[in-house]
Amino acid sequence: MARSWLFVPGDAERKLAKGLAGEADVLILDLEDSVAPANLPAARALVAAILREHAGPRLWVRINALASPHALADLVAVVPAAPAGILLPKADGGADVLRLGHYLSALEAAAGLPEGGIRIAVVATETPAALFALGSYAPPHDRLAALTWGAEDLATALGASANREADGRYAAPYQLARSLCLAGAAAAGVAPIDTVFTDFRDAAGLSREAAAARRAGFAGKLAIHPDQVGPINAAFTPDAAEIAHAERIVAAFAANPGLGTVGIDGRMIDMPHLKQARRLLAMAGRG
Ligand code: COA
Ligand code: MG
Q1: Would the pTM count as exceeding 0.90?
Q2: What SS3 class is residue 3?
Q3: pLDDT, tens digit, for every residue of 135-178?
Q4: What's the CA gap between 234 and 245, in Å, rounded?
């Protein structure tokens, strides 16, 4: 699963070139908030040209919200160039995925593309109503690959002037949004992706937040600056000690097939730990 998802403004040629040359697992070519409305037609054309030139599983597009007047024109412009996936902002729930899925099916057919090839990821906490609908992504749409969350638009929608407390921790509504995103993604069986860390000069803060997200169960994290890609990839890549520990757990159960629980280094290890160890080895490509 993709660890780092780097936003690149869809009208910024220099950043697009830099993104393509970098190490982000996914580039999200953005047609929404980072593009001024007047630049949208040019951005659509540039994004479509880049998709055609660099086709592959790395290139996703964030379109405008379904409730905006731009979403359909965004899709008409980019679907024929076959992006790997569409990131849908400001979604209100699973019904929006179904609707986007229908649009994609029609446009894939019009473009002669195989139906269902283009995946969907959703920014699932950007509207107040969305917070009440995180359970609606399960069972998952066939195209749904990931849920992520956003604290910026949600803060604006809630009338807040800040989404963090003075000590830097997310305020309660945004911690709730993050937890609901995680649970909604797990319930649907799709990847939970943590939101952006906006202070892009603070590498230590980013690493701390990414490590906490990984401990909580997130599979990756959004990025807004190329300098964030390395720390995110590192945080979501199991290190040698984690791999060795997981291999010991798997080996201990393999050696004692009749046992439901074993002791390792003075700690009880049972089925949830075995599942965790197997997931970590799969993440490391050793499972
Ligand atoms: N993708 C690719 N390249 C990027 C980039 C991005 N998201 N952000 C910056 N760069 C490039 C710059 O073009 C610059 O390249 P150069 O040295 O070849 O000129 C280099 O990285 C260093 O950039 P820097 O000067 O540190 O940042 P900045 O002040 O130019 O830009 C932002 C800061 C926040 C405007 C910029 O990072 C950005 O546009 N981020 C994405 C915003 C976005 O998409 N938001 C929507 C989702 S929340
Ligand atoms: Mg936004």
Answers
A1: yes
A2: coil
A3: 999 999 999 999 999 999 999 999 999 999 999 999 999 999 99
A4: 18
Q: Whose CA is nearest to atom 36 of ligand 1?
A: 225
Q: Which ligand places an atom closest to the C-alpha of 126?
A: 2
Residue 231 has pLDDT above 90, yes or no: yes
**CB 130, CB 91: distance < 8 Å:** yes
Please answer whether residues 79 and 108 qualify as being in contact, where contact means their C-beta atoms are separated by less than 8 angstroms.
Answer: yes
**What does the alpha-carbon distance between residue 163 and residue 176 come to, in Å, rounded to a whole number?**
12
The tens digit of pLDDT for each residue in 165-224 reads 999 999 999 999 999 999 999 999 999 999 999 999 999 999 999 999 999 999 999 999
Q: What is the CATH number of domain 4-235?
A: 3.20.20.60
Q: Is 203 exposed, middle or buried (0-12, 13-18, 19+ CB in 10 A)?
A: middle
Q: Ligand 2 centroid vs 43 CA: distance in angstroms?
A: 17
Give, using CA atoms, the residue closest to atom 15 of ligand 1: 15
Residues in the chain: 287
**What's phi and psi for 13, nearest 5 deg?**
-55, -40
CA nearest ligand 1 atom 5, residue: 225
Measure the CA–CA gap between 56 and 60, rounded to whole angstroms: 9
Distance from Cα 88 to the centre of ligand 2, integer Å? 10
Q: How far apart are CA 136 and CA 169, in angstroms?
A: 28
Residue 273's identity, in one-letter code, is H
Helix, strand, coil shares of the chain, percent, nearest 5, are 50, 15, 35
Question: Looking at residue 78, what is its pLDDT?
Answer: 98
CA 196 to ligand 1: nearest atom = 48
